[in-house]
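A further point concerns the way the authors explain their paired sequence and structure data. An entry of this sort, consisting of the sequence and the corresponding backbone structure tokens, reads as follows:
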Amino acid sequence: MIDAKIQFSENELNLAADIDFILTKNRIIEKVYSLFGLLAGTYVKLGKDLLPQETASNSPKISRGENYKGLPYVMLDYPRFFTREDVLAIRTMFWWGNDLSITLHLKGKFKPADPAMFFKLNESDPSSWYLQLSDDEWLHHKTAISHKRVIDLTSGEMNNLMIRKTPFVKIARFYPLQQWCNADKFFEKSFSSLIQNL
């Protein structure tokens, strides 16, 4: 008999025997890929004259995985300029069971010394922009301690975040999966706001 540690629970066995579940998951991921493919073209057009030349030369990249914090995800990176010292990237993300997000990641020569751009972003939609407080550069989700709404930060706190020891800064917006039907508008508006304030 199979060891108890590797036996399926009733719920696990039901899911393992249910082909509809995995086929539905695959269809969902394909639809996310399709949306991100459309967004990639839109992002290139929107960024054509606004992005630094060195960052706009890389084409958009869509990738997927099965294990960001144990859950499937799809990411679109554009612009996507990554070196050890410098980063200018905008990451659009679908995270299964959680949310959609768009994050501006700046590091090195692209990291602003002045937080003015973040306050400008905040003017467009004050309740929705979050600054990452965590020192983990590759954190892609929001927790109660990892992010803080820009509207809730004082200019002093913002300045401290700009001069902190970590060489990067990230600002993000999050959007509920339940509002998928308007996700394209959310991403286009957010991307446009980000690149206009670079």
About this structure: Residues 9-196 form a domain with the BirA Bifunctional Protein; domain 2 fold (CATH 3.30.930). The helical segments are 10-16, 19-47, 53-56, 116-124, 155-163, 183-196. The chain has a mean pLDDT of 91. The chain is about 35% helix and 25% strand.
